[in-house]
Every structure is written in structure tokens, then in C-alpha cells.
Amino acid sequence: MSDREMLDVGTLTSWLDSKGVGTGPITDTVPLTGGTQNILVRFVRDGREYVFRRPPLHKRSNSDETMRREARILTALGGTDVPHPRLVAACDDPDVMGFTFFVMDAISGFTATTDVPEPHASSVELQHAMGLAMVDAAAALGRVDPTALGQAQVDRADGWIGRQVGRWRKQLDSYHELDGWPGPDLDGVDELGAWLDEHRPAEWSKGIIHGDFHFGNVMFRHESPEVAAVVDWELATIGDPLLDLGHLLATWPDPNEPRTKGLARRLDGLPSRAELIARYGETSGRDMTGFDWYQVLACYRLAIILEGTHARACAGKVDEELGKRFHSVSQALLDQARALVSTSPQAV
Q: CA-CA distance, 162 to 133, in Å (whole number)?
């Protein structure tokens, strides 16, 4: 993929001129890598660094709306204490470049999945504070008034908690449309779905959820353990913010593993699961008694999402080895959820 395919510099320059964003030429364009299919390009204009975000080259049917939704989320977060990239300007007219896109401020920081620099790499104290800072960022998001996204979207979230199992089971069943998939060969998926429906919390609170909250979507400051920004908001919606903590703990590094999967290096100072749950409760004011349900839901949901890659691999649409690896991760998530269910007070 060439830089020219990813970014039409001339059109972007004219569009930025129309929005009053800097002057002069765009320089120093650098594609950014990450776990998303969407394209990000860092660039400089008038001495400032920005990031251009657009859909993949081969757009999906919902790509333009995904960009619009992410831009709306970033707009809603403006002025809050949630660390996020500041939205500079958004284009919701696909005729300008053939797709919708937006420009945001570049963030100075690092992602622990690709790099853990000093002094963080050698300091268990900083690593411990990094973990707590992630929970604080999630709690801050949970405090944002969801009506910032519009009352209509808040109203659509009615019944969110009751729809979760059916919504994700429907997605799992949809993989039968892919030739070669052997079906949901995942131990525990049915029993977990039944447990989630049976133990669904009677009360829950609406809020904005990130939807994919884990180390790969968090940038830390170089000079401190603070979160510089939570990134990749394309799955954000309104639901119960406790799901973000559930997702974080579902993907939290196992302290008993000889090496830390998913991070650039082993971080021995990270807080325990109990510390993270207690911190979220203190920071958010939420009652964490029934939290296990949200971590089980996060495991169930993420396992089904990742199984989609396995199904596409079976159909020859993605790399076979990647599909096998994701299938293994899906099973590990379900095993984690079953272990949690077996010890949860909610299981009684």
C-alpha cells in the first residue's frame, strides 16, 4: 500500500485550508501501525503534528458511519477528564475523498504492546501506577454524561443488558455462512450464555463505553505513568461502562505466565485483579459486588468476535495460522470465564 493510496495530500491540504487548520504544505507523512483495519497517517503542518484517520482501502459497508461515530465520540469527550486525542476537524461528506475521515491531534506517548521505555521498563512502582491509571481512565469515561452523544442514542440503549447474549450468539451463528467453518467448536460457549442470562444484573447504569479497552488502545506518557490518551474509539457506544473494566481484566496479563503475552515486555509491577476492581469502585463510586458478570460477558463477547477470524480463515479469506491462533485465544477466554463462574458469588 503506497502513501499516495492512503492519503491524498493535495485534497487534505485544501480541506484543512477550508477549516482554518494551519497554513502551508503538509510534510513528514508517516503511516501508523496498530491493531485496527482503519488507516492512520501522522503528518506535520505549520509546525504542529496531526493524525489523519480514514477507513481501510477496501471499505466495509459501515466504514463511513464508523468514522462519523468515532468523530462524534471524540467531540463528546472534549472538555472532560477522559484522556483522548483532541478532534481537530471531521469530514462526513464521502465525496471529498471517497470516504469520511477526520483529523485529530497527535499524541506523544507509548503503547505498552509495542514499546516500554525507561524509566517504566525498570520500575515496578511506575508499572503499578500505569495499571491504576488505566482503571482511572475507564472510570472517568463512565462518569461522562451519555446524553453528550444525543438523547436518541441514549434511548436506543434501553434494554442493552438484556440483549447482550442474544446479540453475540447471533453473530456466532452467522459464521455458518462462511464455507469450511466447522461450527462453534468452543467448549463452554452455551453454558456461559445460559449463565449470563440467568445471572443478569437487575439494575445497571447507562454510560459511554469504549468497547475495546485494553493495553493496545492506551498510550502512556513518556515522563510519568499517566495515560496520555485512550485511542481507537470505533466500537464506542452506550451501555454499562463496567463492560470496559471487564474487557480490561479479560485481557489482563497473567502474573503466573513466564512471559507476558501481548506486551512488549513483562511488567512485574502491574496491580492484581482485586486491586483493579477496588480502584474502579473507589474512583467511580460504583458497587462492584456483581462485577464478575461483566468480566464473563467480556470474555464471551471477545471470544465470539475472535472466532470470526477463525471462521474467515476456514473459508480462505485470512491466513490459516492466524485463524488457528485466534481460535485458541477464543477458547482461552471461555476457559477464563468458566473458571470465574465456578468461584463467583453470583454462581450460588
A: 31
Write the pLDDT tens digit of every residue in 306-336: 999 999 999 998 899 999 999 999 999 999 9
Give the pLDDT confidence score for residue 4 in this predicted structure.
64
Q: Go through the chain and tell me how many residues it has.
A: 348
Distance (Å) of CA 11 to CA 34, 97, 104, 242:
25, 7, 17, 41
pLDDT value, residue 256: 78
**All 3 cell numbers of residue 85?**
486525542
Taking CA 347 as the corner, what is the angle to CA 342 and CA 348, rounded to the nearest 5 degrees?
Answer: 120
Looking at residue 186, its pLDDT comes to: 95
C-alpha cell at 88: 481537530
Burial 221-236 (b: 16+ CB within 10 A, else e): beeebebbbbbbbbbb
SS3 sequence of 202-227: CCCCCEEECCCCCHHHEEECCCCCCE
DSSP state of 180: T
Sign of the Cα torsion 296, 143, 86, 62 reads positive
Low-confidence stretches of the chain (pLDDT < 70) are 1-4, 34-36, 258-259, 346-348
Separation of alpha carbons 117 and 297, rounded Å: 33
Q: At what angle do helices 273-284 and 242-250 cross, to 10 degrees?
A: 160
The tally of CA atoms less than 13 A away on the side-chain side of residue 178 is 21
Q: What is the pLDDT of residue 348?
A: 42
State the maximum Cα–Cα separation within the chain, in Å, rounded to a whole number: 66
If you ran DSSP here, which 8-state letter would residue 72 be given? H
Residue 234, CA distances (Å) to 45, 72, 230, 237 in order: 26, 10, 12, 9
306: cell is 475472535
Q: Is 23 left (phi over 0), alpha (psi -120 to 50) or beta?
A: beta
